[in-house]
Amino acid sequence: MLEVHGVTCVFGGLTALDEVSFTARAGEITGVIGPNGAGKTTLFNIVTGIYTRTAGRIVLDDCDISGLPPERLARLGLVRTFQNIELFGQMTVLENVMVGLHTRSRSGFLSCACKLPHHLAEEKRIRSQAFELLEFVGIPDLADTVAANLPFGKGRLLEIARALAVQPRLMLMDEPAAGLNSRETWQLGELIRKIRENGVTVVLVEHDMELVMDICDAIVVLNLGKKLAEGTPRQIQENPEVIAAYLGEG
Amino acid sequence: MRRELLKFALFSALVLTVPALVKGGYLLNVLVFVGINTMLAVALNLLLGFAGQISLGQAAFYGLGAYLSGVLTTTHGWNPWTALCAAAVAVGLLAFVIGLPILKLKGHYLAMATLGFGIIVFIVFNEYVDVTGGPSGFPGIPGMQIGDLRFDSDLKSYYLIWGMALLVILLAVNLTQSRIGRALRAIHDSEVAARVLGVNARLLKVQVFTCSAVISCVAGSLYAHTVTFISPSTFGFHFSVELLTMVIIGGLGSIYGSCLGAALLTLLPEFLRTFQDYDIVVYGLLLILMTMFLPGGLVQGGEIVWRWLRQLWPGKAG
Amino acid sequence: MDFSQQISQYLLSGLATGAIYALIGLGFAIIYNSTGIINFAQGEFVMLGGMFGVYFHTIHNFNLVVALLLAVACAAISGVVFERLAIRPLRKATPLGLVIITIGGSILVRGIAMLVWGKDTHALPTFSGDEPITLAGATLLPQHLWIFALTVLLIAVNKLFFQFTITGKALRACAVNQRAAGLVGIDVRRMVMFSFLLASGMGALAGIIIAPLTMTSYDVGIMLGLKGFCAAIIGGMSNGIGTVLGGLILGVLEALGAGLISSGYKDAVTFIILLLILFLRPQGLFSRGDSERV
Questions:
Q1: ipTM surpassing 0.90, yes or no?
Q2: What is the CB neighbour count within 10 angstroms for residue A145?
Q3: Which of A3, A36, B96, C235 has the fewest CB atoms within 10 Å around its CB?
Q4: What is the pTM (predicted TM-score) of this model?
Q5: Chain B interface, mutation test: which of C100, C234, C270, most B Cβ atoms within 10 Å?
Q6: In CATH, what number does C8-126+141-277 get?
């Protein structure tokens, strides 16, 4: 589904990524791991159109998406969540998810301002779909809470619901377990599995090894901007270079 | 949704009955200008309060509406309504073309750029004397009329202006409650997250900018036909600051708040004659203090007072 | 005057006003580099320089040099007060709130000036008389020479300061990485205050040396501030030669525009340049474009 070919990224004098290539297969959960500074978030930002790459290609299901901006990628079915959860703090939980349905609705300035029937019908549909998504991630009771007032764990779930509203083929999650306690992390793992069962391919960057080894079908290891290894969790756990990278250079 | 309709109905009823309460006179004349400033404040609020984009050049679009309408009707004999529409289209196009590059800028840079734009337009009003009459102004603009009905009294102007203002308010409220409004607020809160969800932030910002410019232009046209004499000094940086203060006082993101802000800042100088001398200081202080302590404006202040009152009398309003 | 004489006239007077813009622009750059914000009120400190100068010299009849020094001092102190009251509490403001507060602050300064000194325009006498000097076919006033001299002096002192003094180096450190600077023991808050002191002082001096030529009043700050900002933008917000060149280029283009196109539209020309730079090359003419981050 997602093929990354030889992506290189150079900032000033620093080579953040050096010829990184890997594949994330459709319907699978792929984990990207590596020590701090390995380039994982840079990779994510390049794939999701927030940074510009210096070289390389990114292909989504035979469609070359290299260098496309985030709003185009969303329409092609690629969405991401952020490590620091970028919620729309001033809006309610439900409204946050409703924004996620922006690409699945069409009323323009005129229909909205004049409240044409097409717009009204669409609003109803958006609202009920958003509510269903809140139920999917488990926070329907918080629909009218202002997003800025949410505890961090619930905010995470909201961000996921919002991303799912785009109806993506591929969801990239940047350290989704960061800041969660072990119970929340376990629930997160279950949720990600549920997402995969609904036909969404997931790629996640993570530091929590237990979560990664538990739910990932495939793992890619980065170190110092280069790909170190790619394989099943078992293979990665037994790979001596991976072990050295985590325990050796630190 | 129905609550919004009720609010609007109540507000309209208030607006429509005020002339009977005021019984004409000077106050009615001032209220006409409150109507014009309301349109301008709502236009700026769409851009600033919802999309979070600062513009210090709104007076330019206001002035362009006034001068285009004035020149087309007086010098070239156009029908006022045709001129108003033509001006709106022309200014809309200008705003779109300027908006595309200008809204790539953010924060202070956007503020400076819109300030620069506003000053350029102001200089044109002052210097293009053959067409605009320059600093001495442009007289003789005809009043509006529909068929045989001439809008030549304060009362008729009041209903014309406020009719338009109510329309603008209704459209704005509808817009902000819709997916467009949500997308704008999303851009304001986190542009990168909005984009990741597929919101075309750049285009939407330009569209709001254009909308805001068109509304300001229409307000300008109506202003010109109401006062029949316009001069560049009305459309300078001073007024853009006044508008900004109106929106901030009323509350960013509150359409009715902008009406309140417009009313306050239009009525205050009329009742406090000495206000004229202190106005700049007051605007500066208001901008600073409101942004620091009450960013939701008086509307937020009103909500705080309301909640406090309800706490004092539990079980009263339920 | 024949055409080449006209051109050299425009060039020289353009360089003089450009030097002023460079000084104002340096003020913007210094504050931006140490705090990351654009000080909207910079133009008002330029105005304060001229107005304080008038106050001390014309109203209180101090000697011109003394008045000049006092004016710069007062404006610099106002800059520090401004930083304390309006900027320091900004730690927690949203980006939009920041912009609005700095706009409000600049308006407040202007409003207070209007209350204290009224709306009239005032003139300062030129520093050394009005005998025109001819140079390369162009006519200059002695005031223009003062402008060049003082600007060069200030820029040289500026450069030396940033290059060779501890405080200057500390300020540069803050510009590069505020947190790291704090960690190595630099008092970042003092540095911020110091940068405001510098910027408002320089702005005030610019305001004083141009006042004899262009009159001063409570609202000259907007135009001068915006033009100084333009100079800083052209120069890529650099603390040094970039902004100076930016100012000179702007001054010359403005003078050429005034002479060759129309003097009424002179300021419009300047602001069209501002818009063009912001649209096409907001990082300035002199910095290398890095790999653009979205």
A1: no
A2: 15
A3: A36
A4: 0.89
A5: C100
A6: 1.10.3470
